[in-house]
Amino acid sequence: MTPTAPHQLITRAYDTAGARAIQDELFALYAEIYADHLSDPFYSVERFADRFAGHSNRSGFRLVTGSIGGALVGYAYGGPLGRTTRWWDGLRDDVPADALVEDGTRTFALNEIMVQESWRRRGIARSLHDTLLGGRPELRATLLVDPDNDPARNAYLSWGWRTLGHLQPFPDAPVYEALVIDLPLPEAAAS
Ligand SMILES: CC(C)(COP(=O)(O)OP(=O)(O)OC[C@H]1O[C@@H](n2cnc3c(N)ncnc32)[C@H](O)[C@@H]1OP(=O)(O)O)[C@@H](O)C(=O)NCCC(=O)NCCS
Question: Has UniProt tagged this entry with the keyword Transferase (predicted)?
Fold first, then answer.
């Protein structure tokens, strides 16, 4: 396949209402990308839809989609952690207590980022990531990545994310690595 010229990718940002208006498209792309995992209840489309409903309910939620030729090829979304968030509850490592303090404005949680398989390794995830995090008012961002997910983990580490510890968000969820990055993104990452 011919490599994508960056200008072919159209990114677009949505708030909660806008994201929910296109949620069927989002779920369809999720089902395609996670097709090999859908039999695991945690990865089912129903559970994904439940998580999306919760994530998109947060004040400050943002979705960024990437489209090529009018077709959705990827998206990323997240929102700020609230003062009483349970995000850090499943952390298994000792970290300085002040690393886990949330006041509702400190940390943006990147909940999902995905790109259709046939469009990978063209910098699309990077564009979605930079567009979503660019201009955020929070001081830092966090995300959870499966330590065996080499493509995603390599991407995040190369973009400047660092490991805070290991975290299991729900009893039937995998044990993830919790990563953080300071905001605003460094100039090189934000370009
Ligand atoms: C992770 C994912 C979003 C990356 O999307 P992408 O558009 O291919 O990413 P980019 O083209 O922006 O790649 C950025 C960097 O990621 C790393 N990377 C991406 N795919 C990789 C692979 N298969 N193996 C190793 N490193 C990889 C590289 O460092 C790459 O930079 P490079 O191409 O200059 O070497 C995509 O693989 C995906 O959708 N995976 C399934 C969903 C998923 O796992 N999401 C993350 C959940 S935490």
Answer: yes
Q: Residue 179: give the domain boundaries.
A: 6-190
DSSP code of residue 79: E
Q: Output the residue whose Cα is nearest ligand 1's atom 21.
A: 151
Q: Would you say the CB of residue 29 lies under 6 angstroms from ligand 1?
A: no
Residue 173: pLDDT band with limits 50, 70, 90: confident
pLDDT at position 180 = 98
Element housing 137 (H / E): none
Q: CATH no. for residue 16?
A: 3.40.630.30
With beta carbons less than 8 A apart as the criterion, state whether 76 and 132 touch.
Answer: yes
Cα 149 from Cα 104, distance rounded (Å) = 29
- Domain annotation covers residue 1: no
Q: Which residues have CB under 8 Å from 121's CB, separation 6+? A: none
